[in-house]
Amino acid sequence: MRVFIMPGHTLSGAGTGAVGHINEGEQNRVLTEKIVYWLKQGGADVVTNKLDKAKTSSYLAEQVALCNNLPKFDVVVQIHFNAGSSDRDSNTTGTETWYYNDAGKVYADRVNQKLGSHFRVRGSKQSTGLYWLKHTRDTAILIETCFVDDKDDANVYNANKDCIGKDIAEAILGKNIETSTPPESKIFYRVVSGSYNDRNNADKTVQELKDKGYDAFIDIYKK
């Protein structure tokens, strides 16, 4: 599966994101990196890019160009955080995913289902006006992970970033990603039998050790 994914917004100039309990521009990038990691673990062919500072006021067009100028993808994804929460209770305001057509809705529904284990689900929402969805060439979704101005959303997100990244990756791929613990590094203890300033003496000692069945070698260093 071939996936393009990028963080929404810029870090400075035109197109910066919302700021509250979460800085959207920064966390768009943090979460995107986590999703990319898990997509690769799941076997996807992943391409990612970002626009930290726009060259013009048309930063949305610049973002889309980063995607459309490449060979075709199965799905193109942009990561965002929402804003405008009333934050009047102890519950999360929630997550939502936007799509352009029926092909995108399949991905949006899966993302919402996965993120529903963390946040209240606001649903899959169709838009033919959002720039990312309208102007990207391939099947596209835009994920509003949670609300930057709801402390409950922020607390859940900050405590579960890795899991949220994995959940989004699994939703995109439509399968669970098996995790494995890397093997522990083995510890070896090296024995040094001598240090010589005459190469002949060093060669002689190595040969004596080899004759006795030891694996020996010369390590050259300058003092």
TrEMBL record:
Alphabetized Gene3D superfamilies for the sequence: Zn-dependent exopeptidases
Pfam families recorded: Amidase_3, SPOR
Single GO BP term: peptidoglycan catabolic process
Domain of life, source organism: Bacteria
InterPro entries the UniProt entry points to: MurNAc-LAA_cat (IPR002508), N-acetylmuramoyl_amidase_3 (IPR050695), SPOR-like_dom (IPR007730), SPOR-like_sf (IPR036680)
GO molecular-function terms, A-Z: N-acetylmuramoyl-L-alanine amidase activity; peptidoglycan binding
Domain MurNAc-LAA: 71-173
GO (cellular component) term, any one: outer membrane-bounded periplasmic space
Protein name per its UniProtKB record: N-acetylmuramoyl-L-alanine amidase
Natural source organism: Romboutsia weinsteinii
Lineage: Bacteria, Bacillati, Bacillota, Clostridia, Peptostreptococcales
